Amino acid sequence: MLLDFRPYEFCAWPSEKAALDEVDISLRDDKKRISVVAVVDDRAAGWVAGFQTYSHAFELHPMVVRFETQRRGIGRRLLEVFEEKAREMGALTVYLGSDDHICATSLGGRPLFPDVLSHLSELENLKGHPYEFYLKCGYEIIGILPDANGEGQPDIWLAKSLIGVRRPEEVDI
């Protein structure tokens, strides 16, 4: 599934080894970790994983949904289950980075220094970047890391408070 995950024709995992390493890391027990798989018709349709990085915050990484099963609520449901599990483990916040490898936003392909925050305030989605999916799921943009993935390839950071969030079984999908 990871090798088939190609947002915007960009392969997030360039090799089978890189994909298997990602899965292996998510299953380690050296930190508090969460790994959730969505199954549709006896086939993995999506996966979300993450781990505790601060005393009360979890980083969500990675999240993938098979292309042919996208826009059916699977990603939203994976997030909800991940958030509930993180909350049960003491998390108050979930955060994630959403890379822009191919200039899918107005931030990609250009220098963002100096005055990084002014560029962020003018953020536009040019090619269906997933940051808008996360916004619809209650996440907020909290920052940007310019050139995180190479020159002109920023990482957009989003987070969501788990304080007062409804439990997954209370959410309509």
Which value, in Å, is the CA radius of gyration?
Answer: 16 Å
Topology order in helix (H) and strand (E) letters: HEEEHEHHEE
Shape: globular
CATH topology: Aminopeptidase
CATH class: Alpha Beta
In short:
Helices cover about 25% and strands about 30% of the residues.
Structure notes:
With 173 residues, the protein is of the alpha+beta class. The protein has one domain (7-164): Aminopeptidase, CATH 3.40.630. Helices cover 23% and strands 28% of the residues. The protein is built from 4 helices and 6 strands. The protein has a 6-stranded mixed beta sheet with strand order 1-2-3-4-6-5, sandwiched between helices. Strand 3 (57-65), helix 2 and strand 4 (93-99) form a beta-alpha-beta unit. The longest helix is centred in the middle third of the chain and has 15 residues, at 74-88. The two termini are 23 Å apart. The mean pLDDT is 87.
Task: Detail the topology: elements first, then pairings.
Layout: H1 16-27, E1 33-40, E2 43-54, E3 57-65, H2 74-88, E4 93-99, H3 116-121, H4 131-136, E5 140-145, E6 155-161
Parallel strand pairs: 3-4
Antiparallel strand pairs: 1-2, 2-3, 4-6, 5-6
